[in-house]
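Step 1: inspect the first sequence and its tokens.
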Amino acid sequence: MLSRRDVLAVSAAGAMMTTSTSHAASFGNPDQPAQGAINAKGPGNLKDPGPQSEAIGKQFPSAQFPPATDVGGMPMDWASFNNAPKRVQNGGWARQVTQADFAISNTITGVNMRLTAGGIRELHWHQAAEWAIMTYGNCRITVLDSVGRPYVADVSEGDLWYFPAGQPHSLQGLGPDGCEFVICFDEGDASEFNTLLVTDWFAHTPPEVLAKNFGVPAQTFSKIPLQNLWIFQGTLPGDLASDRAAVSNAREVPPHPFIFRLGASAPVKESKGGDVRIADSTNFLVSSNIAAALVTVRPGGIREMHWHPNADEWQYYIKGRGRMTVFNTGPNAMTMDFNPGDIGYVKRNLGHYVENVGDTDLQFVAVFRASRYEEVSLSNWLTHTPPALVAQHLNIDEATIARWPDNGPGVMPSS
């Protein structure tokens, strides 16, 4: 017996299918005219003799020869940090993908940043909320909340931070090798390269005003930078306890932490196929406008068919190789491949799944501009609908439907 994947799989070289036409058609694209490599019978139909980049093409087999079940046309749901230009300075670098680069992404801007050991992202604030996940190394964050309470913490791989819009903060790489992280702003047109910087404000304020504001002579400000620093190399900070003591001045600390250990948290969904960890305003209380899921899918497993009713989904692929199909009205269905450093995007309420097509774990983070994480599982819906009704829709007997998962497993194993 051939699996569904065997039936649909077509190599880039156009390998002949071994199954019968009648069997293949039952799992092919039902629309006319027939689409997909499985329906390409002409000589040389699958050849691509024109100019091309073989290296890029091999990364996107699903774009080269989509599954026969793909249909119609949908906006591109793939982008990548891998080809985003880096702004490099002494102390680190950053690159970003905004809506200007990725038209579909109108709710989230993504930034990838690296800070050396001692490298500083200068004191600043944003007009949008900032959410981030650490992907490498160690970082020290500082932030002042809206009522003047300071907060200092260290974060490591798998940890999150969240700074509400307008709350001033800084980031600094720690030893031994600094850090790297991904930031999400809750606006599609936000920019990491256009933020409110403390050095800019000092340089564009008359010295006599600075003198009055801080109660010191104007000469105090004679050596301030005349251009902003943005990212610069600093000296490694002292221990965390010393920094916390230095900023406290007997002030109370914020009631909710600005960080969350997502990677070390307990999964909310777990199976042999993988797991899902959630951080939203119910457990990461300060994160009032961004919810997130860290998803791990074992080789051959699948992030089950589902959709999100309350927000678009912005994805960042951390490791492994994935293939995602997104389903829309029309019908429209599009399949794309994702590798480490890539970004995916799924509009609110559109059905989708993500399959691990590699031989190592696939891991990605899904980010939503919403206070709570919400999802609807296709199998959970169908197993909580009268079985006779489902059977009449799909021509599948009720005994088979009774064996479907009825608990919204999150991730399904390969078998």
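Step 2: inspect the second sequence and its tokens, then contrast the two.
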Amino acid sequence: MVQVLPKPVTFEQFAEWYPDTGVRYELHNGVIVEMNQPSGDHEMVIALLSRKLTVEVDKKNLPYVIPKSAFVKPPTTESAYCPDIVLLNPLNLVNEPLWQKHSTLTQSASIPLVAEVVSTNWQTDYANKANDYEVMGIPEYWILDYLGLGGRRFIGSPKQPTLSIYSLIDGEYQVSQFRGDEVIISPTFPELRLTAGEVLLIQ
């Protein structure tokens, strides 16, 4: 049985409580949230993008790796997110106080790029996480909305599969969106030759 914690929960309580049951949890402003079991297509989007990014990392001989799972903790809230993809710069891990014990990243220097694949809780990806990642100073944030679930204020109308890339410019995110056969433009990987349709499983 999973122990119930009092609310709100601090990150330290969350990290010590986290059960080894195979169920994924995140901490959202002091509230423990159980993550839904991802669909097959959701996992395929993650796998495809991870492979493509790894190829680019190898081609450019960059030090980056993609860990199986890692938490990203914004410094200003009692939150801890487990993104679908974290591009990790291991050269900065010596400066990460929570890495060795909790596999948790707190500094933008450790995270060149982070990506979330949208599921039913799209509000968290487009609002909470975008705001927290911006405050942290993470240079690039991808939202892969392969089912077109996001609100119209985020992906337009009619809603359709959309890849949004948030790039940090002068401390604020500027968003570029890609659909169908449009070629993705990534500041971190300018030589990436990949269309939105390929990564969103619509081609």
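Step 3: confirm your contrast with the notes below.
The CA atoms of residues 15 and 102 lie 7 Å apart. The chain has one domain: 40-199.
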